[in-house]
Design brief:
478 residues, single chain, 20 helices, five-stranded parallel sheet, two-stranded antiparallel ribbon, globular
């Protein structure tokens, strides 16, 4: 919701009319009241009554004089009176109409998706039609369009398989990205190989674009490792569970990149909920002051678990950047082409020494926050249905089919590839070996530590006791 939308937001308007924000309901209902009348309305009731007597006498005197006036003058006076009454009614009518519209619109669910918010960069409409934007453009080849579609389809299939595996007890938890594929694939494909990415715990599509094997993402959620991949092999940092902390890591890394004079940029992903964290505010401050080459990529999926965005910010999230001294932009997060164009430009902005930039990808989390969440307790079905009509994969497929850029053979082959990926993921998760229990004592201190050595010895003896008990039990059995 942009700032101008916030001013017209029916929910906010209805609150102001009722005086819930501390304002006067009477003053709100009649914004055109003259200053003298408005001042009189603030006068204590006792004084207003006392002051009303003299004008009453004057009015009575005028009324008596009017009776003595010729009928012609009385008729002439009636014209302006009717005009004044008509003008007054004309002013009142629109006010009533606005109020009525406000009352009905206030019942709409949060994020109902009936209309796109203003100031939204969009290059591909929900109907799959290409549109132009004065500042952002992208001209992908047919092969690139098919590649973007493939990335989103495979990412969604992997994500769905992970959800199923969690339901079957193979994973302890899983955060689904359903509905956010365009935001992640579009931004991920915009990065260069030497750029560095700092994700949260939901950037499965970005990981795919950075070349991280999907099966490696599952280890931490199965509890067999603390991450599962070498961050420096793909310039893709480990998943961060602590909300918002990765923005500080990204900013510090970007400051180092600037000092080294490297021609690369850093991307920090976070959600609308994380934007309320102090870590994010500190990151914005340091990035601005040190002109760090970092792009802050906020996936505004409308819900921070059960809290809607409107309860976290009174202005659109992208406009927060202005307060820190760097640009921000809101992009249609379900439009993979717009996300690609905006992220490319933002990364070039950072690489060229112009400092940080904030991207708010306006999207929607169609699934649960994680597999331990039940979104039906705080979201309405019609809200999700409205956003499903803006499905990022469906709109790109519509474009491919309309422009004859992909045939039936392409989609059939992709379906087979999706099935193969799902099978590989299932096999990988079920064959993951449990880690060596003693591995937890490794890589803690570079030069070792006396207390850690003592704890290792104690834990080794504890583990050995199970083997002794098992041997003793086996001996008794013979």
């Amino acid at each position: 919701m942009t700032e101008s939308t916030a001013a017209r937001d029916p929910r906010r308007s209805s609150k102001r009319t009722s005086g819930s924000d501390g304002g006067s309901a009477a003053a709100t209902a009649a914004p055109g009241t003259p200053a003298k009348k408005a001042a009189a309305s603030k006068t204590p009731a006792g004084k207003a009554t006392a002051n009303a007597k003299p004008p009453a006498k004057k009015a009575a005197a005028k009324k008596t004089a009017a009776k003595k006036t010729a009928p012609a003058k009385k008729t002439a006076a009636a014209g302006p009176a009717k005009k004044a009454k008509t003008a007054k009614a004309a002013k009142t009518a629109p006010a009533k109409a606005v109020k009525k519209a406000t009352a009905s619109a206030a019942t709409l669910p949060h994020g109902d998706g009936a209309a796109e918010p203003p100031e939204l960069v969009q290059l591909l409409t929900p109907e799959g039609e290409r549109v132009e934007h004065p500042e952002y453009a992208v001209d992908p080849s047919p092969e690139e369009l098919r590649g973007l579609y493939r990335d989103m389809v495979l990412t969604r299939r992997f994500d769905a398989e992970a959800v199923t595996l969690q339901r079957q007890g193979e994973l302890g938890l899983w955060p689904s990205l359903l509905g956010q594929e365009a935001a992640q694939v579009g931004s991920g494909r915009a990065t260069h190989e030497d750029d560095y990415v700092f994700p949260t715990y939901r950037e499965h599509g970005v990981a795919w674009c950075r070349g991280v094997d999907p099966t490696l993402l599952l280890g931490m959620f199965r509890g067999v490792n603390n991450g599962g991949w070498d961050p420096n092999s793909n310039n893709f940092q480990l998943y961060t569970i602590v909300i918002g902390s990765q923005t500080l890591h990204a900013t510090g890394y970007a400051m180092g990149v600037a000092k080294d004079g490297a021609d690369s940029a850093v991307v920090a992903y976070f959600g609308d909920g994380a934007s309320s964290q102090g870590d994010v505010a500190e990151s914005f401050t340091f990035a601005a002051v040190y002109n760090a080459p970092v792009v802050f990529f906020c996936q505004n999926n409308q819900w921070a678990i059960s809290e809607p965005t409107e309860r976290q910010s009174r202005v659109p999230l992208y406009r927060r950047a202005a307060g820190y001294g760097f640009p921000g932009v809101r992009v249609d997060g379900n439009d993979v082409l717009a996300v690609l164009a905006v992220t490319r430009k933002a990364l070039e902005h950072a690489r060229s020494g112009q400092g940080p930039m904030l991207i708010e990808a306006y999207t929607y989390r169609m699934g649960a926050h994680t597999t331990s969440d039940d979104p039906t307790r705080y979201r309405r079905d019609d809200e999700r249905a409205a956003w499903e009509a803006k499905d990022p994969i469906l709109r790109l497929r519509t474009l491919l089919e309309r422009e004859k850029l992909a045939d039936a053979a392409f989609f059939a082959e992709l379906d087979e590839e999706s099935d193969a990926l799902a099978k590989r993921v299932r096999e990988a998760i079920r064959t993951m070996a449990d880690p060596d229990p003693m591995a937890m004592f490794e890589n803690i201190y570079a030069d070792g530590h006396a207390l850690v050595d003592e704890e290792r010895t104690q834990y080794a003896a504890y583990q050995a006791s199970f083997a002794d008990e098992a041997g003793a039990a086996a001996g008794k059995g013979h």
